[in-house]
Amino acid sequence: xxxxxKIAVVSGAAAGIGAATVARFAEEGATVYAGDLSFKExxxxxxxxxxxxxxxxxxxWENLANEVSGAGSAQILVNNAxxxxxxxxxxxxxxxxxxxxxxxxxxxxxxxxxxxxxxxxGRGGSVINVSSIWGAVGAAGVAPYTASKGAVxxxxxxxxxxxxxxxxxxNSVHPGLIATPMIAAQDPNISADVxxxxxMGRIGEPGEVAAVILFLASDExxxxxxxxFMVDGGYTAQ
Length: 238
Hints:
By secondary structure, the chain is of the alpha/beta class. The chain has helices at residues 16-27, 58-71, 95-120, 143-163, 181-184, 188-196, 206-217; strands spanning 7-11, 31-36, 43-45, 48-52, 76-79, 125-130, 168-175, 228-231.
C-alpha cells in the first residue's frame, strides 16, 4: 500500500499507460481522479473517480482541481494524455495539425502543472510527466509530436528546479514503443521499424511503464527529481 491515503490525478486515463497507472495506484491505496476526454459521465468505483477531462481546456482543469481540493489536496499528478496526430515533417505539417498536437501534448501538461502544483507547495508532491523516447532523441517526421514531447522533458526539469525547495518533485517518463491503442492505430511498418531498433527486440506493455510511474509517485523516490526515466527496451542507450 505504497500510496495509502494519497490523492492522485491521472490524465489520459481511459486506456493504455493511463489506465494501467490508475489501476496500480488504486491497488496501492490511492484515491485516484482519472481524467479522460472519452469519459462522458462521472463515475466512482473502488477508489477511482472517473471525470471527463479535455486537457486542452483550462476551465476543466480548474474545475477538477477545485473538486480535488474539496477532498484535501493532490499529492500526485500524472500528465499522461497525448497523441501523435500527424507524421508530417516541419515543412509539410499543416498549421492546424501543429497547434492541435501542441495543445494536447504540451499545453495540456502545462495546464495540469499550473493548477495542481499549488496544492502541493510546502506539503509535498510528485508530478510525473509522460514524455517519449522522441522527447529525448531525434526522429524524422512526426514534427509536432517530437517538438511537444521535447518541451515536456524540459518543462519537467524546469518544474523540478523551480519547486524543489517546496517539496515538489517533478520527473519525466519516456516510453518506447508500448502496446497501446495509439500505437495499434499507426502504420504497422513504423512499429516494426522501432521494434527492430530496440535492443530487447519487442514491444513494451503499459504495465511496465505504470510500474516506473508508481515508483516515482511513491515515497521510495523521495530523492528523485528532474530525472528522465527511459522505459524503452534499450532504444535510447544506443
